[in-house]
Protein backbone atom coordinates (compact mmCIF):
# COMPACT_ATOMS: atom_id res chain seq x y z
CA UNK A 1 0.00 0.00 0.00
CA UNK A 2 1.31 3.42 -0.95
CA UNK A 3 0.71 6.35 1.37
CA UNK A 4 0.22 9.83 -0.08
CA UNK A 5 0.06 12.61 2.49
CA UNK A 6 -1.33 16.10 1.94
CA UNK A 7 -1.32 19.26 4.01
CA UNK A 8 -4.78 20.79 4.43
CA UNK A 9 -3.25 24.23 3.98
CA UNK A 10 -2.05 23.22 0.50
CA UNK A 11 -5.62 23.02 -0.79
CA UNK A 12 -5.39 26.62 -1.98
CA UNK A 13 -3.30 25.25 -4.86
CA UNK A 14 -6.23 23.13 -6.07
CA UNK A 15 -5.21 19.76 -4.68
CA UNK A 16 -8.81 18.84 -3.72
CA UNK A 17 -9.48 17.17 -7.06
CA UNK A 18 -6.18 15.29 -6.90
CA UNK A 19 -7.01 13.99 -3.42
CA UNK A 20 -10.43 12.78 -4.59
CA UNK A 21 -8.93 11.03 -7.61
CA UNK A 22 -6.22 9.32 -5.54
CA UNK A 23 -8.80 8.14 -3.02
CA UNK A 24 -10.37 6.09 -5.84
CA UNK A 25 -7.14 4.14 -6.31
CA UNK A 26 -7.23 0.96 -4.17
CA UNK A 27 -3.41 0.86 -4.01
CA UNK A 28 -3.15 4.30 -2.41
CA UNK A 29 -4.04 5.46 1.07
CA UNK A 30 -4.56 9.23 1.18
CA UNK A 31 -3.92 10.99 4.48
CA UNK A 32 -4.50 14.67 5.19
CA UNK A 33 -2.80 16.53 8.00
CA UNK A 34 -3.22 20.04 9.36
CA UNK A 35 0.48 20.57 8.71
CA UNK A 36 3.31 18.48 7.28
CA UNK A 37 6.00 20.93 8.40
CA UNK A 38 6.92 22.09 4.89
CA UNK A 39 5.38 25.54 5.16
CA UNK A 40 7.63 27.16 2.55
CA UNK A 41 6.82 24.47 -0.01
CA UNK A 42 3.15 24.48 0.95
CA UNK A 43 2.88 28.23 0.38
CA UNK A 44 4.58 28.14 -3.03
CA UNK A 45 3.44 24.99 -4.83
CA UNK A 46 1.13 21.99 -4.90
CA UNK A 47 2.96 19.20 -3.10
CA UNK A 48 2.48 15.87 -1.37
CA UNK A 49 4.51 13.28 0.50
CA UNK A 50 4.66 9.93 -1.30
CA UNK A 51 5.77 7.15 1.04
CA UNK A 52 7.78 9.76 2.92
CA UNK A 53 9.33 11.47 -0.14
CA UNK A 54 8.35 15.04 -1.04
CA UNK A 55 6.86 15.54 -4.50
CA UNK A 56 6.48 19.14 -5.74
CA UNK A 57 4.81 20.38 -8.91
CA UNK A 58 3.78 23.57 -10.66
CA UNK A 59 0.14 22.53 -11.15
CA UNK A 60 -2.24 20.05 -9.50
CA UNK A 61 -2.38 17.96 -12.70
CA UNK A 62 1.41 17.78 -12.82
CA UNK A 63 1.39 16.80 -9.15
CA UNK A 64 -0.86 13.84 -9.92
CA UNK A 65 1.50 12.71 -12.69
CA UNK A 66 4.54 13.09 -10.43
CA UNK A 67 2.86 11.18 -7.60
CA UNK A 68 2.27 8.18 -9.86
CA UNK A 69 5.80 8.52 -11.26
CA UNK A 70 7.26 8.54 -7.73
CA UNK A 71 5.24 5.45 -6.79
CA UNK A 72 6.45 3.63 -9.89
CA UNK A 73 10.08 4.56 -9.25
CA UNK A 74 9.84 3.52 -5.59
CA UNK A 75 8.33 0.17 -6.57
CA UNK A 76 11.09 -0.41 -9.14
CA UNK A 77 13.77 0.41 -6.54
CA UNK A 78 12.16 -1.94 -4.02
CA UNK A 79 11.93 -4.70 -6.61
CA UNK A 80 15.59 -4.28 -7.57
CA UNK A 81 16.63 -4.35 -3.92
CA UNK A 82 14.52 -7.45 -3.27
CA UNK A 83 16.13 -9.17 -6.26
CA UNK A 84 19.58 -8.24 -5.04
CA UNK A 85 18.84 -9.60 -1.58
CA UNK A 86 17.43 -12.81 -3.05
CA UNK A 87 20.66 -13.31 -5.00
CA UNK A 88 22.78 -13.16 -1.84
Summarize the SSE layout with pairings:
Elements: E1 2-7, H1 16-23, E2 28-33, H2 39-44, E3 47-50, E4 53-56, H3 60-87
Parallel strand pairs: 1-2
Antiparallel strand pairs: 1-3, 3-4
Give an overview in words.
The structure is a single chain. With 88 residues, the protein is of the alpha+beta class. The protein has one domain (2-87). Helices cover 48% and strands 23% of the residues. It has helices at residues 16-23, 39-44, 60-87, and strands spanning 2-7, 28-33, 47-50, 53-56. Strands 2-1-3-4 form a four-stranded mixed β-sheet, covered by helices on one side. The chain is elongated and about 50 Å long. The protein starts with a strand and ends with a helix.
Query: Number of helix segments?
Result: 3
Structural class: alpha+beta
Which sequence of strands runs across the widest sheet? Answer: 2-1-3-4
The outline comes out as elongated
Q: Compute the CA-based radius of gyration.
A: 14 Å
Note the beta-strand portion.
15-25%
Low-confidence stretches: none
What is the rounded distance between the termini? 26 Å
Secondary-structure element string: EHEHEEH
Domains, number: 1
Instruction: Report the sheet with the most strands, covering strand number, pairing sense and barrel closure.
Output: 4 strands, mixed
Mean of residue pLDDT values: 94
Number of strands: 4
Query: Which range best describes the helical content: under 10%, 10-25%, 25-40%, 40-55%, 55-70% or over 70%?
Result: 40-55%
Amino acid sequence: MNIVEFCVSNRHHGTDDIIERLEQDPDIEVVEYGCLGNCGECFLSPYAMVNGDTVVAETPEQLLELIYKAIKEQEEEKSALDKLLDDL
